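dumping this here before i forget
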Amino acid sequence: MKSASLVTDGTRPAVRLARQLLDPPSVVWQALTDRKQLRSWFPCDLVVAGERWEVGAALTFVFPAEVIDLTLSGEVLVVDEPNTLAFTWGEELLRFELSANDGGTTLVLIDELAAGIAARSAAGWDVCLDRLAGRSPDQDAWQPLFASYAPAFEPTLGPEEGPPEGYQGD
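structure:
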């Protein structure tokens, strides 16, 4: 089931995904900022310079070599614990918004990106956020998601690209 929606009222398009999580915002915040916890759901290793999430901190994103030979740089833009975390991820801007909801958390992820990669990013984030929510998606779960997002996004954004060159993942 696809859950991402397009946001097109900014300077760049964005995909927006939301999840209801059982844990309170303080626990979800740790899952977003603790390197060890990030490894269980985020698509790559995330190294924060100085090991402190603060505005201006440099970020390094190292993808597993068996998936793709890729390292991205980023910078922390917003840290409002436990409500909002935003940072650049290569050319993209990721914003995580957390709000308390019946003892749990509503998590909203907004990914501002290039138009041609919206479907693949939405599919990837869907899988990642399922992992964050404690689900175990199938190894190739992003493929049917991409197959549904690409035609849905194309009328607004144009042709959608598949995996990046050199990608060897599922």
